[in-house]
Amino acid sequence: MGDSVGVSLGQGGDNSTSTLGPCVVIGDSPFWLVNFHPLEDAALQRTEGAIDLVLDHPSPDDRSVCRHSRHEIFQGTSRTLPWASNPYWIEAGLDAQTGVGEGPKDPIDSISTVFSGAPVHSTGRTSGLQRGSVCLSPEVVSPKINGTGKLTREWFVEEPYPYDDEIGWTTSGIGVSGDSGAAIVDSENDALCGQLWGRNIYEKSQSGPRITYFTPITDIFDDIQEKYSGSSRPELPLWKGKEIS
Q1: Residue 25 is inside which H or E element, if any?
Q2: What is the Cα–Cα distance from 152 to 134, expressed in whole angstroms?
């Protein structure tokens, strides 16, 4: 499952938990991409002159659940995993999982433009490793959903071919609550192509197909370089063996 991130305790009443995004390098400094909307309430509640928001990884909520369930291991190695009580599957409305899936082994060291219909995968904090397909064309998204105050055109991920598990995609596919911030990876070339930011529908009682919106990583890099003029264009870290540089 993806790593969680959340606002440190004491910085507002909203302890939203989201997914820690990809690591990028700007100049000689590494940074982690996160979605802002899970942190917005805490940011708005800051007093004038307060220090910047401090984030915790894992999130305070996830650490609290692990401590309460005695899942945390401070020394040695845990040899067991209590599947039935795992809070993430319960939160996503899933039955307890019965096995562990194997994810990609090689680190991602390249980016890709978005290709219509491309198979992709993501590892969200709640949904874990899941697969989907990029839409054929961007969708017009309302200000209520995108939070920008204006209409935008957004790429999205939908249930993958052969489109035969709508219930599974709705309850545990890419983009369920807690997945915001996760990387979207092109499965054919194993390249980072975007960052997930939300779904069109979250309520289980609402009908209709679920789609998951994301922003192309090239747009994110362009935006960072534009807003912080003078900075070098963001890049992915270079991997040397098992070490990052």
Answers
A1: strand 23-26
A2: 17
Q: 88, 126 in Cβ contact below 8 A?
A: yes
What are 228-233's contacts with CB under 8 Å, separation 24+? Answer: 228/26, 231/26, 231/27, 232/26, 232/27
pTM of structure = 0.80
Q: Is 123 left (phi over 0), alpha (psi -120 to 50) or beta?
A: beta
User: 41-55 as b/e, with b when 16 or more CB fall inside 10 Å?
Assistant: ebbeeeeeeeeeeeb
Domains and CATH numbers, the chain: 4-96+106-244 (2.40.10.10)
Q: Encode pLDDT of 67-97 as tens digits.
A: 665 555 555 554 444 444 444 444 444 444 4
At residue 88, φ and ψ (nearest 5 deg) are -70, -45
Residue 55 amino acid letter: L
